[in-house]
Amino acid sequence: MKLTDILPVEIWGAIETEANEKFGLNASVFDDDGKRVTTQKNAENPLCGAIGKSADGQTHICARSHQNISGRAKIGGTPVIGECDAGLIKISVPIFIEDEFMGSFGGCGLLPEGEEIDAFYIGKITGMAEAEIEEMGKGIETISRVKSEEVATFLADAVRGVFSRSEERFSRNA
């Protein structure tokens, strides 16, 4: 069973959009293989956009961070709040049906309060100039630890809501 067997891609996309609009996240639903369920692009800050356009940035910063944070959420069975290698927040909520891991719902792209982006590392991976990276990083919204926890709770509640709607839909069709 896949997440798209539970709800159509459009509903997963609406859930991503809601999280994006509410918190300014690059929100995404991923299947059990770590692939995005939708193809929509939520608003992202310019730095994340530039990192994502770089094949090495996408592989060594975005994908690796997703595998790490989502993997920890899968193993622990609870939401995980961490940082990507660029220094930006990464939140992942595991999605399980009974004991089967189905994927994750998460968001990223905000700067943890009191922290800085890692312009040196981003430059090393993507080939972009540190000054350009720092300029793009200036407009990134910050997020407190408390707000990060609120986001994780919202994402977990959204996943629970998906299954409630799904159960209602299946019981009506039975």
Structural features, described:
The protein has seven helices and six strands. It is α+β, with helices and mostly antiparallel strands. Strands 1-4-3-2 form a four-stranded antiparallel beta sheet, with helices on both faces. Strands 5-6 form a two-stranded parallel sheet. β2 (80-83) and β3 form a beta hairpin. The chain starts with a helix and ends with a helix.
Question: Could you list some keywords that capture this structure?
Answer:
single chain, 174 residues, alpha+beta, four-stranded antiparallel sheet, 17% strand, globular
Question: Would you kindly provide a brief summary of this structure?
Answer:
54% of the residues lie in helices and 17% in strands.
Radius of gyration: 16 Å
Largest sheet: 4 strands, antiparallel
Task: Name the structural class.
Answer: alpha+beta
Query: Roughly how much helix do the residues carry, as a percent range?
Result: 40-55%
Q: What amount of the residues lies in strands?
A: 15-25%
SSE pattern: HHEHHEEEEHHEH
- Low-confidence runs: 168-174
- Largest sheet strand order: 1-4-3-2
Alpha carbon gap, first and last residue: 18 Å
- What is the global morphology? globular
Number of helices: 7
- The chain-level mean pLDDT equals 89
The total of beta strands comes to 6
Task: Describe the secondary structure blueprint for this structure.
Layout: H1 3-6, H2 9-23, E1 28-31, H3 46-53, H4 55-76, E2 80-83, E3 89-97, E4 100-108, E5 111-112, H5 119-126, H6 130-137, E6 142-143, H7 145-173
Parallel strand pairs: 5-6
Antiparallel strand pairs: 1-4, 2-3, 3-4
Helix pairs in contact: 3-4, 5-6
